[in-house]
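I hope you will forgive my troubling you with a question about protein structure. The matter concerns a single protein, recorded as an amino acid sequence and a row of backbone structure tokens. Please examine both parts with care and let me know of anything in them that strikes you as inconsistent. Thank you for your consideration; the sequence and its tokens are set out here:
***
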Amino acid sequence: MNNQRGMMASLLAVGATGAAIYGISRGLRNGTFQQLSQTVSNALNSQPIQQMANPMLGMAANQPLQQTLSNQNNQ
């Protein structure tokens, strides 16, 4: 009985892999992925996204400096 479950899981995994490959090949053939990448690129370059990202990038850029300063203060 346990062997049948393993076989069914393997068949499902192979089926899912085949479906993914089929979908990707169809998307490449009809140009859907090019449209999707352009849409994502446009969305990431939009003004509201950049306004949200700039403070986060500033915090990430200052973090090593803050760590260095806090390490010097602790010594």
Summary: Residues 47-75 form one domain. The first helix runs from residue 2 to 30. The mean pLDDT is 75. The CA atoms of residues 25 and 31 lie 10 Å apart.
